[in-house]
Amino acid sequence: MAALAINDTADGRRTLALTGRLDATTLPGLWDAARRAAADAPRRPLVIDAAGVEYCDGAGAALFVDLLRQPREGKVEVANLHPTYAALLKQFDPAVLVHDLDPEPPRRPAIEELGYAAFGVWRDIRTQVQFIGETFAALVFAVRYPRSVRWKDVWRICEQVGADALPIVALISFLLGMILAFQSAVPMKRFGAEIFVADLIGLSMLRELGPLMTAILLAGRSGAAFAAEIGTMRVNQEVDALSTMGLSPVRFLVTPRIIAAVLMTPLLVLFSDLVGMVGGAITMQSFSIPIVTFLKEIDSAVNMTDFLAGFVKSFVFAVLIAGIGCLRGLQTRAGASAVGDAATRAVVTGIILLVVVDGLFAVAYYLLDI
Amino acid sequence: MSVPPGLPSEGEVIIRVEDVDAGYDGVAILEHVSFDVRRGEVFGILGGSGGGKSTLMKVMIGLNPPIAGHIFIGGEDIVTAGDAQLEGLQRTFGVMYQSGALFGSMTLLENVRLPLEIYTELPDDAIDLVARMKLELVGLEAFTGHMPAELSGGMQKRAGIARAMALDPSILFLDEPSSGLDPITAASLDATIRRLSDNLGVTFVIVTHDLGSVFVAMDRVILLDRRAKGIIAEGDPRRLRDETTDPRVRAFFRREAETVAA
Q1: Which residues of B touch A (CB under 8 A)?
Q2: CATH number at residue A84
Q3: Considering only Cβ atoms within 10 Å of each terminal Cβ, which end of chain A, N or C, has fewer?
Q4: What crossing angle do the helices spanning A197-204 and A255-285 adopt, rounded to 10°?
C-alpha cells in the first residue's frame, strides 16, 4: 500500500510525505490527492519526502515527474528518495514532459478538406487511366510474346478464380433461379400464365442475372483476393524487389490475373446460366410444369443474340474485376490495415463499376436493338 | 549501495525450463533443454540463425506448447496451466516481438497507453504521462502522435520495447531488441536494460545474436546450436569467449567463419 501525508512547516514549506509501495496498483487513489496538495499551495516551496518509499517503479517515477513538472511559483524538490530509485528518476527530464512534443495536428477547415478530397479523387482517376494504359500495353506484349507470360501462375490463378468458385456460383445461381421462378409463378398462375416463367428465367438469366451475379461474386471473392495478395506483396516490399530486378509489376502480377479472369469468368457465367435455369425448372415442377415443357419454352423464348448479349459482357466484367483488384493491391500503403483497406476498396470499386458498365451495356443494346 | 526494502531478493530462480523439447508440427528442433533464469538477471538466448532461439522464447511465454517438458515461471508451470491461469501469468511479463508488433491503427502513444488503460486505474493524464515517459526512455518522446507505419523498423522496435515496459513487469522477454538499431540507440538500449535490471530487479530474457550487446548488458547466456538441437554452452558470456575450448562456442563468440570439414 501507499500513503500520503501533507505537512505545512513553520518555515513556509509544504511537505508531501510519500510512504509504501509506489506502483500502478497502489497509486490510483493517491495521484489526484498529491496533485491537489501541490496545487493548493502554489507559492510555497514544495518538498516531496520519499524517505518512507519502499518500492518505486515506472508509475511511481511518473508521480514524481508529474509533481515536478507542474508550473508553480515555489520551488519543488524530491528529498530522501533511495539512490536506487533516484537513479531511475534521473532518466527523465520533467521539462520535456510538460507538453506533448508530437500533438495531433489541428483539424483542417471544411473547405480545405473538400479540396483534399477532390484532389484525392482526381489523383485516383489519373492513376486508373495510367494503370489502364500500362495494363493494355502489357496485354499487347503478352499477345505478341506469349512465352513471356508466366503460364504456371495463370493456371494456378485459373484454379482459384474458376474451379474454386464453382460451389458458391452454383449455390447462388440455383437459389436465384428458384426464387425468381417462385416469385413470378405465384402471380402469373392467377392468369394461367405459369409457363411464361420459363421465358422470364431464360431471358433474365442469360442476358442479365447470370453475368452480373457471377461478376459480383467474383468481385467479392477474386477481386478482394487479388488486392490482398498484391497488397501483402507491396507491404513486404516484394513489388519493390520486382521493380529493382527490372521486372514490370504490371506485366509480372497483373497480366496473369487478367488472363486467368478472362478465361474463367465466361465459363462461370455459362455455368451460372445453366444452374439458374435448372433451379427454375425444379421449382416449376411444383406448379405442374414438367422439365421438358420448361426447357422447350426456354428454347422458343431465347435466341443466340440473347445468349451472346450476356456472354460478351462477361469478358468485360472479367477485365474490370481483375484490373481493379490488381490496381487496389498495387496502391496499398504501409501498415497492417492497408491490406484490408485495399481489399475493401477493390470490392467496392469493382461492384460500382460492374453496375455502371452493365447499365451502359443495357443502353447500348437498346440503341442497337439487341 | 543498500537494497531498498521493497525490492525482491535477487538470485532466486524465477524461470525454470526443465527438459523441454520444442519445435513445429511435432518435429523437435530443440531437445532436452534445461536451464534456470534468476531474478534480476539479464539472460541471453544466443545462437546462429535457425538454432531455435525464437522457438524457445515462444514456448517460454506460452505462445506455443512444448513437445515435452515443463516451464515454471514464478513457480507455476505454464505447460499444465489452464487458459485463465496462463492469461494471469502472461500479465506478469512483458514481451517485445522481433518486428515491434505495434497495432497499426493506433499512434505510438496509444499503443503504449493500451496495457495501462486495461490493467490499471490510474487517472487518464497519469496514464498519458507514464506512456510518454516509457517512450522517452527509448528516445521516442517526439513521435508520440505518429502511426507505426510512419516510422522506421528500428523506431517501431523501440516503441515495442516501450509498450512491453508499460506495466513495469518483473520479467521482460525481448526478441532481437537491438537488430536494426543504430549503434548509439543500441548502446542506450543496453544501458536502459542494465539500469532497469540493477535498479528495479527486472529480469530480462533476451534473444539476440548481437555480440556487442551480449558482452555489455548480459549476466549469463545459453548458446543454442542447430546441429546439437540444444544448449552447447551456458554461463558468463565474457568467460565463455575467453575460456572456452569448444570450437563451436569459440567460433560464435569470436565471429569466426564456419569451416567445412573435408
Answers
A1: 1-7, 103-105, 109, 116, 119-123, 126, 129-130, 132-134, 136-137, 141-149, 165, 167-168, 192, 195, 199-200
A2: 3.30.750.24
A3: N
A4: 180
> Model pTM?
0.73
Query: Can you give the residue range of the structural domain that contains A10?
Result: 2-89
Segment B171-210, tens digit of pLDDT: 999 998 888 778 887 888 888 888 888 877 889 999 988 8
C-alpha cell at A100: 506533448
Q: Do B141 and A57 touch (CB under 8 A)?
A: no
Residue A200 located in a structural domain: yes
* ipTM for this model: 0.79
Cα A161 to Cα A318: distance, rounded to the nearest angstrom:
10
Question: Kind and range of the H or E element at A186?
Answer: helix A166-189
B75 to chain A, closest Cα gap in Å: 22
Q: How many domains does chain A have?
A: 2
Confidence of residue B261 (pLDDT cuts 50, 70, 90): very low
d(CA B2, CA A115): 64
Q: Is residue A270 part of a domain?
A: yes
Q: At what angle do helices A255-285 and A166-189 cross, to 10 degrees?
A: 40
Q: Which residue segments constitute the domains of chain B, with CATH numbers given?
A: 35-61+172-262 (3.40.50.300), 103-169 (no CATH)
